[in-house]
Design a protein that fits this description.
Keywords: Coiled coil, Transferase. It comes from Phaeodactylibacter xiamenensis. Its EC number is 5.4.99.5. It is an enzyme of class 5 (isomerase). This is chorismate mutase. By secondary structure, the chain is of the alpha/beta class. It has a single domain, classed as Aldolase class I (TIM Barrel, Alpha-Beta Barrel), CATH 3.20.20.70. About 35% of the residues lie in helices and about 15% in strands. The protein is built from ten helices and eight strands. Strands 1-2-3-4-5-6-7-8 form an eight-stranded parallel β-barrel, surrounded by five helices. Helix 1 (about 25-35) packs parallel to helix 2 and helix 5 packs parallel to helix 6 (about 140-150). It starts with 15 loop residues before the first strand and ends in an 8-residue tail after the last helix. The structure holds phosphoenolpyruvate and manganese (II) ion. Phosphoenolpyruvate binds next to helix 4.
């Protein structure tokens, strides 16, 4: 497989930085976050429009209306935007609203039927796609999702390590199992690998430590959930941080160029 750079304009000596709320909640929440992150070295503004909640009854995402808010983020804050897609309708809606980058969530990567549906919807489309690891530590499922998306003709691909679910006591929400990410990097040296420290940690106090650990393992960047009022976020409140806290963390993270 031969890949093209995920983000053409990105210099190799800088980490890929993705930030934004877990979910788009209101236009004001989205734009407030985006304005605070504009011009601060963020490569992609993330926001979930359709949310794959583990249990029913939780906030399932604002839906298509939120895509218009992301368009405003592009226009007003000059940030590229990314959102999660899990089926054909999501892909068509996202493309119609000029979303710059799509991502596959952990609950999609785990299901080859869903990955194939998204891949089929992407045939003939040239857009970068980020692929999160499956929720369970199944290396081949992760690789299989990359292959399915690649076979659809997508060559700008990145992978996101968001940890693996675990039953029992652990300090993480999703245990990192770093070796799987290292093995993936070994198998696909040209694919950028991004650490989703928010979903690994599930809490704020260890976000920086986990992101730094990833960068020390030669990860190519990080994705962090940022919200103007984290405690009152409609999803993943315990792990989100304010734009100011995010920018402070970003300043402190050390990115060393790979020595290979
Ligand atoms: C998210 O990024 O908000 C999300 C739902 O992530 P994951 O698919 O990693 O659980
Ligand atoms: Mn989230």
């Amino acid at each position: 497989m031969t890949f093209k750079p995920l983000l053409e304009e990105k210099p190799a000596n800088k980490p890929i930085i993705i930030a934004g709320p877990c979910s788009a909640e209101t236009e004001e929440q989205v734009l407030t976050t985006a304005r605070a992150l504009a011009g601060k070295g963020v490569d992609l503004f993330r926001s979930g429009i359709w949310k794959p909640r583990t249990r029913p009854g939780a906030f399932e995402g604002i839906g298509t209306e939120g895509l218009g808010w992301l368009r405003k983020v592009k226009e007003e804050a000059g940030l590229k935007v990314t959102t999660e897609v899990a089926n054909t309708q999501h892909v068509f809606e996202a493309l119609k609203h000029q979303i710059d980058v799509l991502w596959l969530g952990a609950r999609t990567t785990v299901n080859p039927f869903s990955v194939q549906e998204v891949a089929d919807a992407l045939k003939g489309v040239d857009i970068p796609v980020l692929i999160k690891n499956p929720i369970n530590p199944d290396f081949k499922l992760w690789v299989g999702a990359i292959e399915r998306i690649y076979k659809a003709g997508i060559t700008r691909i990145g992978v996101i390590h968001r940890g693996f679910s675990y039953h029992g006591e652990t300090k993480y929400r999703n245990v990192p199992r770093w070796q799987l990410a290292i093995d993936l990097k070994r198998e696909f040296p040209d694919l950028p690998i991004i650490c989703d420290n928010s979903h690994i940690c599930g809490r704020r106090d260890i976000l920086q430590t986990v992101a730094q650990k990833a960068l020390d393992l030669n990860f190519d960047g990080y994705m962090t959930e940022v919200h103007p009022d984290p405690d009152n976020a409609w999803s993943d409140a315990a792990q989100q941080i304010t734009p100011a806290q995010f920018l402070e963390m970003k300043e402190q993270l050390i990115f060393r160029q790979p020595t290979t």
